[in-house]
Amino acid sequence: GIQVEQSPPDLILQEGANSTLRCNFSDSVNNLQWFHQNPWGQLINLFYIPSGTKQNGRLSATTVATERYSLLYISSSQTTDSGVYFCAPRPLSNYKLTFGKGTLLTVNP
Amino acid sequence: ETGVTQTPRHLVMGMTNKKSLKCEQHLGHNAMYWYKQSAKKPLELMFVYSLEERVENNSVPSRFSPECPNSSHLFLHLHTLQPEDSALYLCASSQDLGRGSQDTQYFGPGTRLTVL
């Protein structure tokens, strides 16, 4: 099956800093979602982005499908951005999202 | 997000108990999913239903028994669980099974299960 690698595994920031999270995947995809899991376990949809670039407030994401990676940018980070960020691509061959191990982000005040 | 709800939010049970987890989606979706999230591991897909028909059973032990009575409701019946089954159980739904490119899965808040 498709392999998904997220980096870095852990990231600690001061409030106001910017960051880039990376997701590499091993197969061609027709869907890729980014999620934020808050400390209570809720998975929140951030982006549906199989290719191209999207922006939503302080967050933006870029997927380069031909090179099999996606990036999540967080600007002017806030303490409420803390949590785990998951990348989940879906290969062309089936309907299943495959989750990476996530990046644990801690934003300190 | 309140489009997908799960109850209970927390559950503690003994190994001999029988309990059920409930998921309800209010999005008019046709596909529903159960995932398991154990500590330090990626989310694992357990079951998938499309139009109330099970289409995926990912080598899950028989002590987990799913039920989908209609496209809005999904249950996970639990019996004689083991302590290693303690985890966060997440339900999700999507418009369809996601074979097309325009699909997104929406997750419920999860049930945190502890098996003693």
Query: Judging from the principal axes of the Cα atoms, what is the shape of chain A?
Result: globular
In round numbers, the mean pLDDT of chain A is 95
Oligomer class: heterodimer
Most residues in contact, chain pair and counts: A-B, 25 and 24 residues
Number of helices of chain B: 0
Strand proportion of chain A, as a percent range, falls in over 45%
Approximately how much helix is present in the residues of chain B? Answer: under 10%
Most strands sheet of chain B: 7 strands, mixed
N-to-C SSE series of chain A?
EEEEEEEEEE
Rg from alpha-carbon coordinates of chain A: 13 Å
Largest sheet of chain A: 5 strands, antiparallel
Measured between the Cα atoms of the first and last residue of chain A, the distance is 40 Å
Low-confidence runs of at least 5 consecutive residues of chain A: none
Summed up, the helix count of chain A is 0
| Range of helix content of chain A | under 10%
The radius of gyration computed from the alpha-carbon positions of chain B, rounded to a whole number of angstroms, is 14 Å
Number of E-type strands of chain B? 11
Task: Specify the structural class of chain A.
Answer: mainly beta
Structural class of chain B: mainly beta
Poorly predicted sequence stretches spanning 5 or more consecutive residues of chain B: none
Order of helices and strands of chain B: EEEEEEEEEEE
Question: What do these coordinates show?
Answer:
The complex is a heterodimer of chains A (109) and B (116). Chain A is globular and about 45 Å long. Chain A has a 5-stranded antiparallel sheet with strand order 1-3-8-7-6, with no helix packed on it. With 109 residues, chain A is an all-beta fold. Chain A starts with a strand and ends with a strand. Chain A is built from no helices and 10 strands. Chain B is mainly beta and 116 residues long. In chain B, 0% of the residues lie in helices and 55% in strands. Chain B contains no helices and 11 strands. In chain B, strands 2, 4, 5, 6, 9, 10 and 11 form a 7-stranded mixed sheet that branches. Chain B has a 4-stranded antiparallel sheet with strand order 1-3-8-7, with no helix packed on it. The mean pLDDT of chain B is 91. The interface between A and B is medium-sized, with 25 and 24 residues.
